[in-house]
């Protein structure tokens, strides 16, 4: 994008935006349209996200009405889109963001209703807009036809994706994609049976997906255990596993402290709260797991200890920034402890914020050769001293078991 986007505050800024939208629709250059800052009567509605697709050969836009707790999808023929958007701006939405192959256009209304139009012109030609058909080719690691997806309410009786579960479906596929890449680089024999523990398995979406992918897609022997505190969820998942004939898939009631496996090859803990993530990572390291996958949730232990270094005090005096710094420090230390224990570790965005707010993944794959942890432990000590942190749960657990040097 150009560094200096053009801007317009002319009274016809709204009209200009609608004309640009019409041109993009006519030329087939529209990639995405987002309407945000909702001010309408329905307070649960947050935004509308529109993307092109073909419905029975007719050019249309798929409009996802994103509410706080659900999504509603509506397909609208292209010729009706401009009129619909015109009705919504500015009475229902105060921001509109148009993405095309030529660049971006953003329309924003002030509190007094004054429109502002900004254009960001692409520095180089973008790739053509993606194919719009329902049947466009996508890399999927699981098929929607899998029976467990219907049983868990992801698909309907005909095997079609239920619109409100689209974000969960994206998360499931991304999770399996990340796991598949990790498995390819892990020091595990191709024929080796795998033992997997999924802590905080909930309704079992990812647990079933992992088991199905290993046994049905890869043809590997696998024992997958979902661990969940809520007995009703455990009963629900065990009943589904038995009904769907998923041998080697079981669910146990407990948590990462009460269920202690003797040995596992894969440890999963998504959205484990606060130090539960540390207990999960410790379990994976102690069991010599080849793959550890964590998506941390809240970060409470380090923040009260955090002392703002002098240079950073003006920045960290704001609570939001302090919380973000505590989160970054907590997860950086976790990644470094994993490195010190012989893992190649990555910290990355698991799935776009468009689909979930809990989107950070810590992925650790056991190295084939051990590493000298001395330098890493020195870096950890320096980081802790810089921020005044005296205790980190994962370090305490690892030291107690002699997994890192005292």
Automatic annotation (TrEMBL):
Residues of the Methyltransferase domain: 167-304
GO cellular component, one term: cytoplasm
Gene3D superfamilies per record: Vaccinia Virus protein VP39
Domain of life: Bacteria
Pfam families from the UniProt entry: Methyltransf_32
Keyword annotations: Methyltransferase, Transferase
Biological process terms in GO annotation: methylation
GTP-binding found in the keyword field: no
Example of a GO MF term: methyltransferase activity
Listed name of the protein: SAM-dependent methyltransferase
């Amino acid at each position: 994008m150009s560094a200096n986007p053009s801007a317009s505050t002319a009274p016809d800024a709204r009209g200009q935006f609608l004309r640009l939208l019409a041109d993009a629709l006519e030329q087939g250059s529209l990639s995405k349209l987002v309407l945000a800052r909702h001010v309408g009567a329905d307070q649960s509605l947050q935004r509308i996200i529109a993307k092109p697709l073909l419905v029975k050969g007719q050019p249309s836009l798929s409009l996802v009405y994103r509410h706080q707790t659900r999504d509603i999808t509506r397909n609208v023929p292209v010729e009706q889109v401009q009129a619909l958007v015109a009705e919504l701006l500015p009475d229902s939405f105060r921001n509109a963001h148009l993405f095309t192959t030529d660049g971006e256009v953003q329309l924003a209304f002030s509190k007094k209703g004054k429109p502002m139009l900004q254009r960001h012109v692409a520095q180089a030609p973008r790739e053509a807009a993606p194919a719009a058909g329902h049947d466009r080719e996508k890399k999927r690691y699981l098929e929607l036809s899998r029976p467990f997806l219907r049983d868990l309410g992801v698909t309907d009786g005909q095997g079609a994706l239920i619109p409100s579960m689209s974000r969960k479906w994206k998360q499931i596929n991304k999770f399996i994609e990340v796991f598949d890449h990790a498995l390819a680089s892990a020091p595990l024999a191709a024929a080796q049976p795998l033992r997997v523990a999924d802590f905080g398995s909930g309704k079992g979406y990812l647990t079933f997906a992992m088991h199905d992918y290993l046994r049905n897609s890869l043809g590997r022997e696998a024992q997958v255990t979902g661990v969940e505190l809520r007995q009703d969820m455990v009963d629900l998942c065990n009943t589904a596993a038995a009904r769907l004939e998923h041998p080697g898939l079981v669910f146990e009631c407990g948590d990462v402290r009460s269920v202690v496996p003797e040995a596992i090859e894969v440890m999963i803990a998504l959205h484990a709260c606060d130090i539960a993530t540390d207990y999960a990572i410790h379990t994976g390291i102690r069991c010599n797991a080849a793959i550890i996958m964590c998506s941390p949730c809240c970060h409470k232990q380090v923040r009260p200890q955090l002392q703002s270094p002098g240079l950073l005090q003006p920045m960290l005096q704001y609570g939001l920034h302090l919380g973000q710094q505590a989160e970054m420090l907590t997860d950086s230390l976790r990644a470094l402890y994993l490195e010190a224990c012989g893992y190649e570790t990555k910290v990355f965005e698991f799935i776009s914020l468009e689909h979930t707010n809990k989107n950070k993944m810590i992925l650790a794959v056991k190295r084939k050769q051990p590493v000298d942890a001395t330098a890493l432990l020195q870096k950890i000590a320096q980081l802790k001293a810089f921020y005044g942190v005296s205790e980190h749960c994962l370090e305490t657990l690892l030291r107690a078991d002699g997994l890192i040097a005292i």
